[in-house]
Amino acid sequence: MMAKRRILGSVVLLWAMVSFLGASLRVLADCAGVGLPFNDLGSTSFCAAIAEAYYTGLTNGTGPTTFSPGSDVTRVQTAAFVTRTLDASLYRGSRRAALGQWWNSMPHFDLGLGITSVGVEPGQIASDGADVWTANGGDATVSRVRASDGKLLDSWTGAIGAGGIVVAMGRIFITGKNSPGTLYMVDPTQPAGAVTTVANTLDNVPIGLTFDGQKFWTASSLFGHSVSIVTPGPTLPWPVTIVSAGFINLTGILFDGNNIWVADVGDSSLKRLNASGQILQTIPVGASPWFPTFDGHNIWVPVFGDNSVVVVRASDGVILKTFSDANGDRNGLSSPRSAAFDGRRVLVTNQDGSLSLFEASSLNPILTVPTGLDIPYGACSDGVNFWVSFLGSAEIGRY
């Protein structure tokens, strides 16, 4: 990026970005008729773009009555313009905005109203946008909870060793932490009953689960040491490919739109994989990385053994930040297990019963919230609220 740009060109660029993102209504009027305070615009043909930038708070000009259309823009000012554009799109383009739920100060559990009893030992948790789904390893069930009010709607049975869970292809998929491992499916359009087994030759004890748009990927821990790739097909069971080279003891796994990433407790790393499961990059992150989340740019890795969270840039694997005692920004992290992203914030569950909240865009800690409940484990967002499973109390909570 050049150190300086002409401000007129920058405003045009910002206008295009804002219009594309739907962040504001385009103003179509001449400069004298839209109430702009600037007296130095002359007869520019970019009045609509300038008015839009001014009225949405992207720029306030260079003084009470001056816009300085011929002045240069520094890198610092350009950064301010771009981040304000990003914030405008987040505020006006989110589901939270559409529902009029503007609060953003801290999570809470609605004075005790946001707790729902589900199955025994709920682990990983996922949302389809309308409902929240939990994999309950203690009683081999899968629970469906309505996100709007927390009502338990249905429970499916037969998910022996239920662990990881993901929403894909209009269905709910769950790993069975068995030997050999299992992949189950729930059809939400049908009455509750027994889960369907779609694959039963995964490597042992699959715990993490993700989907790349075509295939399912599971991460095996303890007795497995591999990733299993499941390819959906017209008949059951679906074929499974197991890749073990370079893996030791895997936990969380995710897809960022380009690559698969898996946390390996065995060598304290986060690993980037290609479409065949081969390791492209190994990034040391600390002792016992667990279930990460992706915020659209960066991967947030809870590191259980170090009481830390490591933020890794997905484009190149560079570690951008580590939240820890040593860096003075631990933010209450205590044996963190899982992370979730809601469009603006990242929530991390802690073994001690608390939740740590971070701002994704600025990589800043927000606060830590005690829950008073036993062993927060999995986490997800329904687009408005965070949901957390409590491994020790057979409940999930809305925050």
Proportion of β residues?
Answer: 35-45%
What is the CATH architecture term of the largest domain? 7 Propeller
What order do the strands of the largest sheet run in, or round the barrel if closed?
Answer: 3-30-29-28
Distance between the termini: 40 Å
Structurally, how many domains make up the residues? 2
- What count of helical segments does DSSP give? 4
Percent helix, as a range, is 10-25%
Number of beta-strand segments: 30
CATH H-level homologous superfamily name of the largest domain: YVTN repeat-like/Quinoprotein amine dehydrogenase
Please state the CA-atom Rg, rounded to the nearest Å: 24 Å
CATH class of the largest domain: Mainly Beta
Low-confidence stretches: 1-29
Textual characterization of the structure:
- With about 400 residues, the protein is mostly beta strands.
- The chain has two domains: about 5-95, no CATH class; about 110-399, 7 Propeller (Methylamine Dehydrogenase, Chain H), CATH 2.130.10.
- About 10% of the residues lie in helices and about 40% in strands.
- It is built from four helices and 30 strands.
- The protein has helices at about 5-20, 45-55, 75-95, 95-100; strands spanning about 5, 70-75, 115, 120-125, 130-135, 140-145, 150-155, 160-170, 170-175, 180-185, 195-200, 205-210, 215-220, 225-230, 240-245, 250-255, 260-265, 270-275, 280-285, 295, 300-305, 310-315, 320-325, 335-340, 345-350, 355-360, 365-370, 375-380, 385-390, 395-399.
- It has a four-stranded antiparallel β-sheet with strand order 3-30-29-28, with no helix packed on it. It has a four-stranded antiparallel β-sheet with strand order 4-5-6-7, with no helix packed on it. Strands 8-9-10-11 form a four-stranded antiparallel β-sheet, with no helix packed on it.
- A hairpin with a 6-residue loop joins strand 13 and strand 14.
- The chain starts with a strand and ends with a strand.
- Residues about 1-30 have low confidence and may be disordered.
